[in-house]
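Known limitations

Files may contain more than one protein. Parsers should not assume a single record per file. Below, a two-record file is shown to illustrate correct handling: read the sequence, read the token line, then continue until end of file.
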Amino acid sequence: MNLSLETRALTIRFGGHVAVDNVSCGFAAGTLTAIVGPNGAGKTTYFNLISGQLRATSGRVFLHGEDISAFSAPKRSHLGIGRAFQLTNLFPNLTVLENVRLAVQSRAGLGFNLWSVWSSHKELIGRAEEVLETVALSAKCDVAAYALPHGDQRKLEVGILMALEPDIFMFDEPTAGMSVDEVPVILDLIRSLKARRNKTILLVEHKMDVVRELSDRIVVLHNGALVADGEPAAVIASPVVQEAYLGVEVAR
């Protein structure tokens, strides 16, 4: 399998606590992998190690075969690792449209230059408007990011990520805090990304109905360690998942 992203023996310790414990796992383009486990299992910490928010105690992260373990989070983002829900507060006082168009500008290689003359980049503005339509925020294009309700901030985060067009999409509980009416917008976006079959998608999600529907594969973390990895139905039915994740007592 040609892996776009891989972790090898990835470990991080906080004092005497091992938050991620020797996790080796590879991810291929065209697949959506759900990473599940109980609270405190190490899922978000694992994401932080991949995207560069945390530096591993030991182990390696590879992107398209290149060891990126020593790279900063911005460098990893530039190389194609996109982490949703870390960008909302970049420009809280700018409008929704300005936030997305800056991401489009960065993707075009023009940097995050607030003083760029946008009238000379009509095609980039058009791309930003397309993204806003996709995430159902066109009607709020002139609203400051900080003034958005929580659900719309989540949609804006996804919009910024889509505008950056990374190779690796990392979604950490994308529907958390959203109303029932807002959830389908995000799930449809993830479905559309998966349908392209050229992106690697990692999804941390507690809602098992979402996991069952969207994932090609499930990886289970428990106490920081990888305890199951495979096809969704088999993993969900496995004793280790029934006990560790679902809290079901399994007879032995």
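...continuing to the second record:
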Amino acid sequence: MSSIALVTGGNRGIGLAIAHSLRAAGHEVVVTYRSGSAPDGFKSVLMDVTSTDSVDAGFASIEEQWGAPEIIVANAGITKDGLVMRMSDEDFESVIDANLTGAFRVARRSTKGLLKLKRGRLIFVGSVVGSVGSAGQVNYSSSKAGLVGMARSFARELGSRGITSNVIAPGFVETDMTASLDEKRRGEIAGSVPLGRFCTAEEIADVVTFIASPQASYISGALIPVDGGLGMGH
């Protein structure tokens, strides 16, 4: 029987690539989305990770229709970049709320089902900037750094129940956002990466799918970089 995998923010970009990869590996995939439309061919529910009520309602809908998710990929997130002197409280707090507290709300609610199953995977999508920092991204870097402490605490608290908890940390990824950069800036970014190129969303998704697999059953509390060597040593 295939396990149910939940991917938050799974209607585009890295989240959608993860959804496709998990489905190809034989999982029954449910994606959540807050805006836009649900991706074709996937089970989906509306969920706003900044609202506990919305997270609870989303999980209740999933459990009622398909059962409790066994693989949780906390991917939903936002950016509000800006220089620190001009970064408002709202710019800082909204990014923390979506990226860090949002991941907590999802993981907390998922544990109800995981504890009954006595197995499961919590997979948090972090970022290389959570370790190395990034000018203009104090809020985003802080939110992604926080995921490491969160995931490791979940790993210690839930490990005895067969539940693993890990962070995948992508580097610079080919997305709509990075595609809009001018060639000079793209070249500068690629030049800072030892492998000399951007990562594809599929390369991130493949690592998530591995961590969700039985082959990764003894990996927990890990920070797994998929960054072409950009953040090595952190």
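Parsers that stop after the first record will miss the second one. For reference, the second record is described as follows. Residues 4-225 form a domain with the Rossmann fold fold (CATH 3.40.50.720).
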